[in-house]
């Protein structure tokens, strides 16, 4: 998107504001499908948790995408957006058997990641097809909080527990139609991912009636100029070759599935904030904006670096600023960052704000959540209204004590 287009949206809808470029989402989807074009049955399930606005889900559906969900509420959002239940996979962690059964009744694909729930579910519902999430014990991911395939992870059934897993399946007579893994996010080393894939292929040989193998996701996207990213094209070539060879060995056609979230929406997102105050101290120049970690927590939670531009003064001389929010504790988006000269009232643009940004927003400090706009074919569409004070009070009950 052009800076003037973003500025016009900030003027029209005020700030803070999330903006998503539909064309970028579509092109990322096309890039991934092209990388695996030689696979006969290829399926992308968009990870709803990255950005769950129903208009974004509807856009994904139009591309031919399925959904990867982690809660019954995400399943319900997908159904509300018009997805066929068979195009939704449900991969929770630590949920009750009651929620799992409730989701199964909706007709979506169940993915179970622990032996206890697997045994309980299989004993009661042996004819319901189930996918199994395997923990390959491969450490991958750009941050400890997003690496989920290592030996101490709470996610997945350990590959070392395979004998227990097979015994449960034999005793219950349940039908396993898929296996799944997810090693982590921000994966750069394609060979590490391929190593984990080999573990999944070996595991798949123990199940004779599989319909699909789900490799999760975790592709890294660039967060700044010159930043490194996962080479999706190289990965596509290498995994396609190995997957086709495994299909021949397995003796039947399988679906190769992925569950990208960040890869599809991260670069499509822009977060716009207005500068309330420029504050000079003895050693630092602070640019205080009209938002905080209640709206964008990734820099504080993950140490994520979002490129920041002053779109009100794009040709200004670059100076060093610490960009901070209005939350009354540590609330720093960037320390001593080179940004075009900032004045009070300027609009700053945070790049790569499509994934895990609005979806992790809160009402901390009783602040209102921002509006969201989808940009498509040169026009902005409001897809979420800015909250009001009535929204803050909506579910509160005042009692006289």
From TrEMBL:
MF terms in GO: diaminopimelate decarboxylase activity
Q: Which residues make up the binding site for pyridoxal 5'-phosphate?
A: 218, 356
- Annotated ranges, domain Orn/DAP/Arg decarboxylase 2 C-terminal: 18-354
N6-(pyridoxal phosphate)lysine modification sites are 49
Top EC class, one word = lyase
**Protein's pathway:** Amino-acid biosynthesis; L-lysine biosynthesis via DAP pathway; L-lysine from DL-2,6-diaminopimelate: step 1/1
UniProt KW keywords: Amino-acid biosynthesis, Decarboxylase, Lyase, Lysine biosynthesis, Pyridoxal phosphate
Q: Which cofactor does it need?
A: pyridoxal 5'-phosphate
Q: Which CDD domains does this entry report, sorted A to Z?
A: PLPDE_III_DapDC
Instruction: Name the reaction it catalyses.
Output: meso-2,6-diaminopimelate + H(+) = L-lysine + CO2
Which amino acid positions bind substrate, per UniProt?
Answer: 298, 302, 329, 356
Listed Gene3D superfamilies? Alanine racemase, Lyase, Ornithine Decarboxylase, Chain A, domain 1
State its Enzyme Commission number(s).
Answer: 4.1.1.20
Q: Where is the Orn/DAP/Arg decarboxylase 2 N-terminal domain?
A: 24-266
Q: How does it assemble?
A: Homodimer.
| NCBIfam families to which the protein is assigned, alphabetical | lysA
The family assignment reads:
Belongs to the Orn/Lys/Arg decarboxylase class-II family. LysA subfamily.
Q: What does this protein do?
A: Specifically catalyzes the decarboxylation of meso-diaminopimelate (meso-DAP) to L-lysine.
This protein is called Diaminopimelate decarboxylase
Organism (species): Flavobacterium nakdongensis
